[in-house]
Give the backbone structure.
Amino acid sequence: MTRVYEVQATAIGGRDGSVATSDGRHRFLLAPPEIDGSGSGASPEQLLAAGYASCFLSALQSVAQDRDIRLPMDSNVTVKVGLRQSDPDGAELDLDVSLAVDLPQVSQDRIGEMVSEAHARCPFSRALAAPTSVRTIVE
């Protein structure tokens, strides 16, 4: 397959550090989630929620355009990303993700169909729903 887009970000210091994109346009101070940290920086979960929300809304807009549906300007997607314990000891955590879709003036039946199609189009949805190829390079 041909790669059509790629970005690069480097993290330093883990959850108590920073992450920056290679083009120098974005740098975020990081902090552990407020469950055990100060909350004074962005958490990786917040960054995932922001990316997923914007990507999924774009997929919905694409579906609407294909169906000749005009979405109102205040259409929105809210993504919640949480951490849940996945073992009895609480040592392993898994992501818990939910999406709330608000498309004013669009019928609930249509929204359901559009959401299903948007999940099929959205790279974030596909990556989170199925095994994703992750390559590790040791430098």
